[in-house]
C-alpha cells in the first residue's frame, strides 16, 4: 500500500526555462517536488535513503543534459520522465547488487528511457575521466584551468591571484597546464 | 602556443570582425588547423561540462541538506516499511544487547552453581562399581596380599591393589562370567576372585555398552571347571512384588541383600531395567539378581541418588539378548547356558551356600 504524495509541482515549462537560465530557485522547487516520489520508489524496493538521493540526483543530471542539449521534447510530463529514469537506474543497481532479478514495485507510469540512460552513462564516464585527470594534474594547474575555463575568470585575475609578474607568464603557465591536462585525459581514455 | 591563443580568442569571440574573417579563411584552406580548432573546442566543452555538472551536484546537495528526509519518509512510506527500516538500522544493536543478555544469564547461572545442580540431577543414577582407594590399601592391603601369597604360593594375586571393583557371576561352568560393562571399561587387566580368595586372570571377550553388559572369560590356567551351575536364567519379565535377593562384593566379603521388585522400568523409565527396592552399594555392580526360586532375573547395575532404596537391574531378557549377539569367533566354543535349576526347593540359607562359589569379585586394574 503506497501513500499518495501530494505536493505542489512547478509547471514543466517553468522548469525547462529555469534549467536553460540556470535558475537555482527552479532547481530547488524541482528537487523538493520530485525527490519524495523517488525516495518512496527506492526505499520500498530494497534501497536506502542515500541510494535514493544518488539515483534522484543522477536523473536530474540526465534531465539537465537533455534540456541543455536541446533535444528534450515535452512528449510526456517531466515527472514521468524523472520517474522513468530513476526507475531504470535503480533496476540497474539492483541487478548489479543481484538482490533483485529485475522486478520492481511501481508507483507511477513510465517511459522507455534506455537511450537517455546510455547517453548519460557515456557522459558520466567522461565526467569521471575529467575528474581523475584534474586530480592528477595537481595544483596550481588545476585551479588555473578551473578558474579560466569553468569559472570564466580573466587572465588578469588569474595573474593577480597566483602572483605572476605579468599576464603573459600566466598565459604561458595556463598553456602548459592545458597541454598536460590533455595528455593525462587522453592517455586515461585509452 | 600562439596558435592556441588564436584559437581561444576566436572561440571566445574576442577577435575583431576582420581578424575573425581572416582566421576563418585560414581554417577553410587548412584542414589541419580546422581539425585543431574542432578538437580544442570539444575539449574545452568537456571541461565546461565537467564544471557545470559539479556545480549542479553541489547545488543539489545543498538543497538536499535542507530536506528533512525522515519526515519525508514518514510521509511517503507505509508504517510497516518504516518499522522494517528501523529494524535494519538497529538490528546490530539489538543483536549485541541480546548477546549480552544471554551471556549475563549464563554467567549468572554458572556462578550460582545452577549447572552443577542440573548435572547432579542428570547423574542421579549411580553406577555401583567400587573405587578402591590406593591410600588406604597401600600398606595394609599389600601386606595382606603378601601374606596370602605366602600361604598360598600358587595363587598369582597381583601385588598392587585393584583400582576398581565390582561383582560378577558365572554364566557357564567352564569360565564365562558376566558383569557390567561400566565395571571393566578402560581396564588394563581384569582379575576375578572367588569367595576363597583365589584370583584368576580374565579377559573381556565381549561388551554390550547399550545394556551395560560385559562377558569375561577366565583365561588363567589355574582355573578348574566348576560343577554345573545351580541357577537358570529367566527369559520372561518378572512380576512386581516378587521377592528378590542378590550377592555382591561391596566389601572384600560376600554380602547378601534382599528386597522386592518395585517397578518394571528402571532409571528414567528405562524398559531394559527393573527398579528393585534393595540395598546395594558400590561394588555390587554386576551382581546377580535372583528370584525366590533361584532364577537369575537381572544384573545389578546402579541405584538412584534421589529415591531412597531404588536400585536398578538389567532384565535377564536383555542379558540373554546381549549374550546371543556375541559373534561366534569371539567364543572358543559354543556358550551353553544351564537349564536345570537345583535351587528351587532349598531354603534361602542353603541357596546362598550353593551359589557362593559362582559369584566373583571383579578386580580391575
From TrEMBL, chain A:
Any one GO biological process = DNA-templated transcription initiation
Please give the superkingdom of this protein's source. Answer: Bacteria
Q: Does the keyword Protein transport apply?
A: no
Q: Which SUPFAM superfamilies match?
A: Sigma2 domain of RNA polymerase sigma factors, Sigma3 and sigma4 domains of RNA polymerase sigma factors
Give a GO molecular function annotation for the protein.
Answer: sigma factor activity
Keyword rRNA processing applies? no
Keywords noted in UniProt: DNA-binding, Sigma factor, Transcription, Transcription regulation
The text of the family note is: Belongs to the sigma-70 factor family. ECF subfamily.
NCBIfam families noted in UniProt: sigma70-ECF
Protein name per UniProt: Sigma-70 family RNA polymerase sigma factor
- Organism of origin is Arcticibacter tournemirensis
UniProtKB/TrEMBL annotation, chain B:
Listed GO MF terms: serine-type endopeptidase activity
InterPro entries, alphabetized: Peptidase_S1_PA, Peptidase_S1_PA_chymotrypsin, Peptidase_S1C
Q: Which UniProt keywords apply?
A: Membrane, Transmembrane, Transmembrane helix
Q: One GO biological process from the UniProt record?
A: proteolysis
Signal peptide residue numbers: none
**Parts of the chain that traverse the membrane:** 92-116
The protein depicted here goes by the name Trypsin-like peptidase domain-containing protein
Provide the species name.
Arcticibacter tournemirensis
Amino acid at each position: 500500500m503506497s501513500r499518495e504524495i501530494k505536493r505542489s509541482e512547478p509547471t514543466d515549462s517553468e522548469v525547462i526555462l529555469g534549467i536553460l537560465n540556470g535558475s537555482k530557485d527552479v532547481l530547488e522547487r524541482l528537487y523538493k517536488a520530485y525527490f519524495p516520489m523517488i525516495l518512496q520508489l527506492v526505499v520500498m524496493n530494497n534501497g536506502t535513503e542515500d541510494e535514493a538521493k544518488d539515483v534522484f540526483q543522477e536523473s536530474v543530471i540526465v534531465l539537465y543534459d537533455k534540456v541543455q542539449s536541446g533535444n528534450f521534447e515535452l512528449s510526456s510530463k517531466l515527472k514521468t520522465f524523472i520517474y522513468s529514469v530513476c526507475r531504470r537506474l535503480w533496476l540497474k543497481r539492483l541487478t548489479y547488487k543481484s538482490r533483485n532479478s529485475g522486478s520492481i514495485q511501481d508507483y507511477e507510469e513510465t517511459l522507455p528511457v534506455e537511450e537517455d540512460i546510455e547517453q548519460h552513462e557515456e557522459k558520466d564516464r567522461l565526467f569521471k575521466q575529467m575528474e581523475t585527470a584534474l586530480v592528477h594534474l595537481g595544483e596550481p594547474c588545476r585551479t588555473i584551468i578551473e578558474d579560466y575555463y569553468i569559472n570564466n575568470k580573466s587572465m588578469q585575475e588569474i595573474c593577480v591571484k597566483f602572483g605572476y609578474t605579468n599576464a603573459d607568464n600566466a598565459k604561458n603557465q595556463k598553456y602548459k597546464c592545458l597541454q598536460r591536462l590533455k595528455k593525462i585525459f587522453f592517455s586515461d581514455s585509452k | 602556443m600562439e596558435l592556441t591563443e588564436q584559437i581561444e580568442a576566436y572561440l571566445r569571440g574576442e577577435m575583431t570582425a576582420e581578424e575573425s574573417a581572416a582566421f576563418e579563411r585560414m581554417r577553410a584552406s587548412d584542414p589541419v588547423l580546422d581539425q585543431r580548432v574542432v578538437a580544442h573546442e570539444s575539449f574545452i566543452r568537456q571541461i565546461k561540462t565537467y564544471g557545470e555538472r559539479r556545480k549542479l551536484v553541489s547545488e543539489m546537495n545543498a538543497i538536499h541538506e535542507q530536506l528533512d528526509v525522515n519526515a519525508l519518509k514518514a510521509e511517503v512510506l507505509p508504517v510497516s516499511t518504516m518499522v522494517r527500516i528501523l529494524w535494519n538500522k538497529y538490528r546490530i544493536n539489538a543483536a549485541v544487547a541480546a548477546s549480552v543478555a544471554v551471556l549475563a544469564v549464563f554467567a549468572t547461572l554458572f556462578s550460582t552453581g545452577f549447572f552443577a545442580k542440573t548435572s547432579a540431577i542428570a547423574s542421579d543414577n549411580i553406577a555401583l562399581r567400587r573405587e578402591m582407594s590406593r591410600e588406604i590399601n597401600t600398606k595394609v592391603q599389600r601386606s595382606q596380599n603378601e601374606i596370602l601369597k605366602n600361604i598360598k604360593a600358587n595363587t598369582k594375586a597381583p601385588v598392587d591393589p585393584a583400582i576398581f571393583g565390582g561383582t560378577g557371576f558365572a554364566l557357564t561352568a567352564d569360565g564365562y562370567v558376566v558383569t557390567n560393562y561400566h565395571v571393566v571399561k578402560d581396564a588394563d587387566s581384569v582379575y576375578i576372585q572367588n569367595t576363597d580368595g583365589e584370583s584368576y586372570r580374565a579377559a573381556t571377550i565381549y561388551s554390550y555398552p547399550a545394556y551395560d553388559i560385559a562377558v569375561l572369560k577366565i583365561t588363567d590356567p589355574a582355573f578348574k571347571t566348576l560343577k554345573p551351575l545351580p541357577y537358570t536364567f529367566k527369559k520372561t519379565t518378572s512380576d512386581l512384588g516378587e521377592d528378590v535377593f542378590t550377592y555382591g562384593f561391596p566389601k572384600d566379603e560376600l554380602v547378601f541383600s534382599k528386597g522386592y521388585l518395585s517397578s518394571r522400568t528402571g532409571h528414567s523409565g528405562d524398559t531394559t531395567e527393573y527398579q528393585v527396592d534393595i540395598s546395594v552399594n558400590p561394588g555390587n555392580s554386576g551382581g546377580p539378581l535372583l528370584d525366590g526360586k533361584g532364577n537369575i532375573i537381572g544384573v545389578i547395575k546402579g541405584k538412584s541418588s534421589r529415591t531412597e532404596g531404588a536400585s536398578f537391574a538389567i532384565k535377564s531378557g536383555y542379558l540373554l539378548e546381549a549374550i546371543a549377539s556375541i559373534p561366534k569367533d569371539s567364543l572358543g566354543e559354543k556358550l551353553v547356558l544351564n537349564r536345570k535349576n537345583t535351587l528351587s526347593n532349598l531354603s534361602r540359607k542353603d541357596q546362598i551356600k550353593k551359589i557362593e562359589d559362582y559369584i566373583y569379585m571383579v578386580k580391575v586394574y
